[in-house]
Specification:
Layout: H1 12-39, H2 44-53, H3 71-84, H4 86-105, H5 108-119, E1 125-128, E2 144-148, E3 151-162, E4 169-175, E5 190-196, E6 202-205, E7 208-210, E8 224-235, H6 247-283, E9 285-286, E10 289-290, H7 295-323, H8 329-353, H9 364-375, H10 382-396
Parallel strand pairs: 1-4
Antiparallel strand pairs: 2-3, 3-8, 4-5, 6-7, 7-8, 9-10
Helix pairs in contact: 1-3, 3-4, 3-6, 3-7, 4-5, 4-6, 6-7, 6-8, 6-9, 7-8, 8-9, 8-10
Length: 401
């Protein structure tokens, strides 16, 4: 039988990369994922293995020590990793977004300094937009950077920082009024700062504190934290791109590719849920035969498989559109929206197929059931995606005259 979610038109190199990653997932991640997740333990050994495979430098250009691969290759790699354990794909995602932002918008000095170390996994990235009181309203951020000689002094509180403790480089979005007169649109007075720090918790550099991990329902293992800046001094040469007022655009560009990543994670989790459901349906017996032979279960499996295929196709389309150099916010929004919603539905159906055993922590589906909801809100809620999609559709189908 042909496995679900195959991708046509891949190169030999892409197929080799994906085969290697899939083998790593089957051997090194799936056997330990549930145990580590239940302990909320950071997967250090898995991360080291991915560093050796070059995954942290997958999209970083070869001139900086990376593999120079496409967004499609990266998204398909994330899909494979999320199939094993979604938290691991989250560890990679924030690193990837910061590397992408540096590649696209950094000064040459910033690229030369950071990208080789990021490709090797020596510097690990995280990015920070959200704050405790603003939710999806990025324009309302209150964290602020003020020029002081050759430095900027940063103050404010950030929230939902993935890799907050384990990262050593954080791209932080702050408001900067310098050069932007009163009345300037909020999104034109924001700047991205490249903040280097020590890994760990507490005061990780003067003026910067990373409190302990936020205790979450799912998405465990990966550290999610707050970030508190109190008189944090950052050299002016650590403004991304060397120019203030461009931070909102930098972050939105990063989030756009991040949405392809979240779609890929949804595809991977949904694939694993389908695998668990179709396998268990052939093992569990009721009324004298495997439940897979009951029409109701066959209908459920058919719906699950169709959703897996549809989400995968939209994710691949969004990645290829970005790789072609075209605007892909519509496709990325659609892919993220569909993949996250379908992931939730496929996981729930697999959970139902497991019956009472699905409620037991001894079965893997219990972990997936707690992980899937994060995809509904990560990189923008379903409502945000629908706003983006609706606005873009009106641009495309605007009535003339």
């Amino acid at each position: 039988m042909t496995r679900l979610a195959q991708t046509e038109g891949l190169t030999d190199i892409q197929r080799e990369i994906l085969s290697t990653v899939r083998g790593f997932v089957d051997k090194e991640i799936l056997p330990v994922a549930t145990e580590l997740e239940h302990r909320d333990e950071y997967p250090s050994q898995i991360v080291e293995g991915l560093k050796e495979l070059g995954v942290f430098g997958l999209m970083i250009p070869e001139e900086y020590g990376g593999l120079g691969e496409s967004l499609l290759t990266y998204a398909l790699t994330v899909e494979e990793i999320a199939r094993g354990w979604m938290s691991v794909s989250g560890i990679i995602n924030t690193h990837f977004i910061v590397a992408y932002m540096l590649k696209q918008h950094g000064t040459q000095e910033q690229k030369d300094y950071f990208l080789p170390k990021m490709a090797a996994g020596e510097i690990r990235g995280a990015f920070s937009m959200s704050e405790p009181a603003l939710g999806s309203d990025v324009s309302a951020i209150s964290s602020k950077g003020v020029r002081d000689g050759n430095d900027y002094v940063l103050n404010g509180q950030k929230m939902w920082l993935t890799n907050g403790g384990s990262s050593t480089l954080v791209a932080v979005l702050c408001r900067t009024d310098e050069g932007h007169p009163e009345g300037t649109a909020p999104h034109k007075s924001m700047t991205t700062f490249l903040v280097e720090k020590e890994a760990g918790f507490g005061e990780v550099r003067p003026g910067l504190t990373i409190p302990g991990k936020i205790d979450k329902m799912g998405y465990k293992g990966v550290d999610t934290t707050e970030l508190i800046m109190d008189g944090l001094r950052i050299p002016a040469d650590r403004v991304l791109g060397g120019e203030t007022g461009r931070g909102f655009y930098h972050m939105m560009d990063g989030v756009e590719v991040g949405r392809v990543n979240v779609a890929a994670r949804g595809c991977g989790v949904a694939q694993r849920a389908f695998e668990l459901g179709v396998s268990y349906a052939q093992q569990r017996h009721t009324f004298g035969k495997p439940i897979a032979q009951h029409q109701a279960i066959q209908f459920k499996l058919a719906e699950m498989a169709t959703k897996v295929e549809a989400a995968h196709a939209m994710m691949v389309n969004a990645a290829r559109k970005k790789d072609s150099g075209q605007r892909n916010d519509l496709e990325a929004g659609m892919a993220k929206y569909l993949a996250s919603e379908y992931c939730k539905e496929v996981v729930e159906d697999a959970f139902r197929i497991h019956g009472g055993y699905g409620f037991s922590k001894e079965y893997e589906i219990e972990r997936l059931y707690r992980e899937a909801p994060m995809l509904l809100i990560g990189e923008g809620t379903a409502e945000i995606q629908k706003m983006i999609i609706g606005r873009r559709l009106l641009e495309e189908y605007r009535i003339q005259g």
